[in-house]
Amino acid sequence: MKGPASYFPSIEKKYGRPIAEWKDLIRASPLTKHMELVNWLKTEHGLGHGHANALVAHTLAE
Fold first, then answer.
1. Considering its fold, how many domains does the chain have in total?
2. Rounded distance, CA 35 to CA 26, Å?
3. Cα angle 31, 46, 56; round to 5
4. Got the DSSP string for 1-62?
5. Tens digit of pLDDT for each residue in 1-57?
6. What is the largest CA-CA distance in the chain?
7. Residue 22: domain span
């Protein structure tokens, strides 16, 4: 596993939610810009910057 997806196992372990659930939250957010979404995950859900960035990058690239 390479790129943003390489963070997924540790994200699931640390925050207790499956990646699909995080992606659904990102897609449901009214925010659309990468850094807005990263900051939202950090402030509202307590994710670290690297984890939030990986989730947003992978979701927006789909």
1. 1
2. 12
3. 40
4. --GGGGGHHHHHHHH-S-HHHHHHHHHHSS--SHHHHHHHHHHHH---HHHHHHHHHHHHT-
5. 688 899 999 999 999 999 999 999 999 999 999 999 999 999 999 999 999 999 999
6. 30
7. 3-60
Q: What's the predicted TM-score (pTM) here?
A: 0.93
CB 55 within 8 A of CB 29: no
Q: For residue 43, what are its two tokens?
A: 């402030």
| C-alpha R_g of the chain | 10
Task: State the amino acid at position 15 in one-letter form.
Answer: Y
Q: Which class for 35: exposed (0-12), middle (13-18), buried (19 or more C-beta within 10 A)? A: exposed
CB 41 within 8 A of CB 56: yes
